[in-house]
Amino acid sequence: MRSAAAAAIPMPSNVHVRRTSPTTMEVTWDPSAYNGIAGYRIYYSELALPSDMDQWRIVDVGPYTVAEVSGLEPHSAYAVRVRAKSVVDARLSNFSDIAYTNRLNQGLLLYCRQDFICLYGKNKLWCEAQQTPLPAAT
Predict the structure, then answer these.
(1) Where would you tag: which of 30, 91, 96, 119 has the fewest CB atoms within 10 A of its CB?
(2) In this structure, is residue 137 part of a structural domain?
């Protein structure tokens, strides 16, 4: 039988990402439905797949539901996930669903899935995570 301390920590939900400048994004989320949250861990990446989480960059924050992430590449789209951290034993929740930034001033995010993002800009349509150029829409 599992004790309450060993129970799974609910993941954060409703993650949203907004570019606030070419090199900065604001990440917001609904808190984990768990009373012992010490903070959150934000994972972000330009092109990494969810199966390559060791390639994602990490920012740890306190028990807040908003954070600013800086040092981004201008005009790049980012995938973002968030995990809650337990105050009792620093265990992490499962990953939140993925949220995506827009490409600031240089393209339009058309479609996104966990394994790729399709963008349209400069008369080209392409999928960045798979890095597969597609013909432009006519």
Answers:
(1) 30
(2) no
pLDDT in tens, 7-39: 689 999 999 999 888 889 999 999 988 888 999
3-state helix, strand, coil in the chain (%, to 5): 5, 45, 50
Residue 116 belongs to some domain of the structure? no
11 belongs to a structural domain: yes
Predicted pLDDT at 33: 86
Residue 64 CB contacts under 8 Å (≥ 6 apart), including other chains: 39, 40
* Dist CA 81 CA 43 (whole Å): 5
pTM: 0.70
List the 37-45 sheet strands across, edge first.
57-61, 37-45, 79-86, 99-100
